[in-house]
Amino acid sequence: MKEKFKSDYFYYRLYGDYALFTDPVTKGGGEKFSYQIPTYQALKGITEQIYWKPSLRYYIDSVKVIKKIQTETKGIRTPLKNGSNDLNYYTYLRDVEYLVQFHFEWNENRPELCEDWNEIKHEQIILRSMSKGGRRDIFLGTRECIGYIERLRKEQFETASTYYDGKKISFGIMFHSFIYPDEITEKDSENVLISNFTDIKMDNGQINFIRPEECHVKHNLREYGYKSFSKENMKSVEEEFNLLSGEGVDI
Fold it and tell me: What is the model's pTM?
């Protein structure tokens, strides 16, 4: 059997004044309360803001929690249908900093995009995009929480100290990720959005994530369609790379 492709690891620093990685349990009454740490899905979404193509999939391997976990509660006025306002309380994380390790693999459920599987060019685009702070705006869980990224080297990630060095912390069962229809191989589930939950532990300030398909607690949420891509409605990696090289719009 042919060995599955896996890219080299990439690393970046992620930071901001506030973050809100919402615990879904707190959403019902209009209040929002952040998890103490970013979820796998939040980090995946942030990574996709650096550079995204449907021909590849990102996997978050690890995150280091550099600063002390601190929260701050704010009163937020939200408009109601009758024209009045309601006061809700959102609990944010304050002054956050994380170091993230990730890699990509080919999206083999999109074989029509196999011509886009150029490892070297994708890697170069990702590295350059990280150096420029990403290609799209970075949000730390929600739009009012602006985030920033900086490219890191492997040694910077591995040698970085954290506030939680020497400590082991269990966060219990947390939301982990979604599995979208184009990431599912079982034919009877190909149009279903799945949510994953798993036990999260931090050792010396570092959380090592399992893959979405390895989560044992799964829920089928709803039917979920996805957009088809082809050479006609998607820029090839060669076109993206040429833009990176200064031919046309700089990324």
Answer: 0.86
